[in-house]
Amino acid sequence: MDDARTEEIGRNLARVRERIAAACRAAGREPDEVTLVAITKTYPAEDVAELAALGVHDVGENRDQEAAPKAAAVGDKDLRWHFVGQLQRNKCRSVVRYASAVHSVDSLRLVDALAAAAERAERTEPLGALVQVSLDDDEHRGGAVTGMVEQVAEAIAASPALRLRGVMAVAPLGWEPDEAFARLAAIAARIRQRFPGADWISAGMSNDLETAILYGSTHVRVGSALLGNRTPLG
């Protein structure tokens, strides 16, 4: 990797870490309560390796056809790979081989497919799974509508091959971040009341991570603020 790219990523990472720290101070939280998940989709394995060298151990991808070879190319056993995109059931067998957690579990059928794949893969530990919530209850986009969230969570918790981690959401287009993340926080609280160990809230990206942290996000998913606007892979 050229020195200019190394310096760019280092500067960006320092700025993002300071934003997280400042947001935590404003929310009365400790910075170590928030995990930075670097979203590396469309960017090369070299960028992932550079982030790892700088101490970033959680990386996120949204397409298996890119994530699987990238995880193999990086080959860093200390990295935790988070699958954050819409997941087709026929990709579950591949995803369970490298992912530490899947943030986008939004249906009972997907729970069944992931559980079966994780069992066949004979993983050393259960696959982390988060219920993706459709905050605006639009069934045509990703996420379980709010009336289904508890059912999906129950199905995850019932599988020995999966571990219910919590909830994930993206602020819907046109919504103010405060409205979106306040609603997610309320849903997360309901899930935690029934499943105390499901304490992850995956929310907040480059443009709204401060608001997400204010409302309790434990995992912020940051891409462009880390890797910039360089021309991505095709």
TrEMBL record:
**Which residue ranges does the record assign to the Alanine racemase N-terminal domain?**
12-229
Q: Which InterPro entries match?
A: Ala_racemase_N, PLP-binding_barrel, PyrdxlP_homeostasis
A Pfam family cross-referenced in the UniProt record is Ala_racemase_N
> Which superkingdom is the protein from?
Bacteria
Q: Which terms are listed as keywords in the entry?
A: Pyridoxal phosphate
Q: Does the keyword Ribosomal protein apply?
A: no
Tell me which residues bear N6-(pyridoxal phosphate)lysine.
K41
Instruction: Show the NCBIfam families listed in the entry.
Output: YggS family pyridoxal phosphate-dependent enzyme
Chain's role: Pyridoxal 5'-phosphate (PLP)-binding protein, which is involved in PLP homeostasis.
- Family that this chain belongs to: Belongs to the pyridoxal phosphate-binding protein YggS/PROSC family.
Record-given protein name: Pyridoxal phosphate homeostasis protein
Organism name: Dactylosporangium roseum
